[in-house]
Amino acid sequence: MERNTVNNNEEEIVNYANTSEYMTFELGKMKYAIELPKIREILTYPELITTLPN
C-alpha cells in the first residue's frame, strides 16, 4: 500500500490498488480470514442444534 503526503498540511492519499479485502471469522478459539473474491456462499445455522439419537 502506498502512502503519499500531499501539501504541507499532512493530508494523506492512500493508494488501495494493490490491497485485498478479507472476511474474518472464528471457529472455536481459532481465527481465520479469506479473500472476498474467493467466497461463493455464506451459510448461517441456528443457535440451537437438535441432537438426534444414534
Structure description:
By secondary structure, this protein is mainly beta. It has one domain. The protein contains no helices and four strands. The chain has strands spanning 2-6, 11-15, 22-27, 30-35. A hairpin with a 4-residue loop joins β1 (2-6) and β2.
Quick overview of this protein structure:
This protein has 54 residues and is mostly beta strands. The protein has no helices and 4 strands.
What order do the helices and strands come in, and which of them pair?
Elements: E1 2-6, E2 11-15, E3 22-27, E4 30-35
Antiparallel strand pairs: 1-2, 3-4
Pfam family, one: CheW
GO biological process, one term: signal transduction
Domain CheW-like: 19-54
Note the total helix count: 0
Shape: elongated
Structural class: mainly beta
- Strand segment count: 4
Biggest beta sheet summary: 2 strands, antiparallel
Averaged pLDDT: 83
Distance between the termini: 54 Å
Keywords, separated by commas or semicolons:
single chain; 54 residues; mainly beta; two-stranded antiparallel sheet; 0% helix; 41% strand; elongated
